[in-house]
Design goal:
By secondary structure, the chain is an alpha/beta fold. It has a single domain, classed as Metal-dependent hydrolases (TIM Barrel, Alpha-Beta Barrel). The protein has helices at 4-12, 28-38, 47-52, 59-69, 76-91, 104-108, 114-132, 148-158, 183-191, 206-214, 231-239, 248-253, 265-271, 282-285, 289-300, 304-316, 322-344; strands at 15-21, 95-102, 135-143, 167-171, 195-200, 220-223, 244-246, 275-277. It has an eight-stranded parallel beta sheet with strand order 1-2-3-4-5-6-7-8. Helix 1 (4-12) packs across helix 15 (289-300), helix 5 runs parallel beside helix 7 and helix 16 packs antiparallel against helix 17. The two termini are 23 Å apart. The structure holds adenine and zinc ion.
Length: 345
């Protein structure tokens, strides 16, 4: 069991979330509300029915439901409400900064204009900054099961909104869709000033992680669970301080690991990898950042020092300015000292 002092520390630690698909925050209640408003039929009778269907066997079994649910999102207002609901929730978990993935192709392929999608998400981020004090960046993901030509088209659509998007990413079904498939679109994106990240090593082999680094020139790896199979790769991640945005509850639900106790996060921390804890698709996987921290702490018996390191890593791995990173790290060190003083008495 997680002791209450561990939970208190988790709650008090300022945190950044760096691996979060906005479409994966679509809670069944909001899904029903928006689908009804838009006249979109759902094949479920109730929110409970939807939750019962969340029995996944692998990544693809989840993606099938996730893309289906996204069909309820049509208007700019829907994207705004989806994003706002997430930001409001995590601001209560002491998440101070978010870097949100969105999948434009999931919507543009259904005839929803790119502009509506990004306007809704962006304006929720702007409001969250002023009303909730939470900062945010947007990362535009290409769906890797589609062609590179389609990704190129999406990149061109995004260029007028360049100032609203900090990086490009790569998601969806990994196996059979290696990073090298997207070499040209990433090259153009980087030349246009976008930073780069990519999902790699979630289900795919460590070779996919190496390709993401060497060919796509990513700044961090999303998931990276399978890096442990290649010791030279782990050493590289440590030496080059390439962060991994890990998502323990997602890995459990999608059967990347069979038990959270087998999750590689602690081994990677011990090896010196800049590992972070994130929620991926919290509405589907049973928890937001806090729940991921609590479950992982419990399964891996993480110490206060390790919890603080994870929180510091989340800011170090983020795309905020160095002075901001330093400010958060200092606050976390101070908090840890205070909790040690308190527990000594
Ligand atoms: N899209 C949403 N969640 C994802 C995940 N965990 N892996 C790949 N693509 C995704
Ligand atoms: Zn993901």
């Amino acid at each position: 069991m997680t002791t209450s002092s561990k939970k208190t520390l988790i709650d008090k630690l300022p945190k950044a979330e760096l691996h979060l698909h906005i479409e994966g925050t679509f809670e069944p209640e909001l899904m029903f509300e928006i689908a009804k408003r838009n006249g979109v039929p759902l094949r479920f009778m109730s929110a409970e029915d939807v939750r019962k269907a969340y029995q996944f066997t692998d990544l693809q079994s989840f993606l099938d439901i996730y893309y289906e649910a996204a069909k309820a999102l049509i208007h700019e207002r829907d994207f705004y409400e989806l994003t706002w609901a997430y930001l409001e929730k995590v601001s209560k978990q002491n998440v101070r900064h978010v870097e949100i993935f969105f999948d434009p192709q999931t919507h543009t392929d259904r005839g929803i204009p790119f502009e509506k999608v990004i306007n809704g998400i962006h304006h929720a981020l702007v409001d969250a900054k002023s009303k909730l004090g939470i900062s945010g960046h947007l990362i535009m993901c290409f769906l890797r099961h589609l062609s590179e030509a389609e990704a190129m088209k999406t990149l061109h659509e995004a260029l007028p909104y360049k100032d609203w998007i900090i990086a490009v990413g790569l998601d969806s079904g990994e196996i059979g869709n290696p990073p090298e498939k997207f070499a040209a679109v990433y090259e153009l994106a980087r030349s246009e000033g976008f930073l780069a990240v990519a999902h790699a090593g979630e289900e795919g082999s460590p070779e996919y992680i190496t390709q993401a680094l060497d060919i796509l020139k990513v700044r961090r790896i999303d998931h990276g669970v399978r890096c442990l199979e290649d010791p030279a790769l782990v050493k590289r991640l440590v030496d080059e301080r390439i962060p991994l945005t890990m998502c323990p509850l997602s890995n459990l639900k999608l059967k990347v690991v069979t038990d959270l106790k087998d999750h590689p996060l602690k081994k990677l921390l011990d090896a010196g990898v800049v590992a972070t804890i994130n929620s991926d698709d919290p509405a589907y996987f049973g928890g937001y950042v806090r729940e991921n921290f609590v479950a992982t702490q419990e399964a891996l018996n993480l110490t206060d020092d390790e919890l603080a390191t994870l929180a510091k890593n989340s800011f170090e791995a983020s795309f905020i300015p160095d002075e901001e990173k330093a400010k958060y790290k200092k606050a976390i060190d101070y908090l840890l000292e205070q909790s040690q003083v308190l527990s000594a008495h």
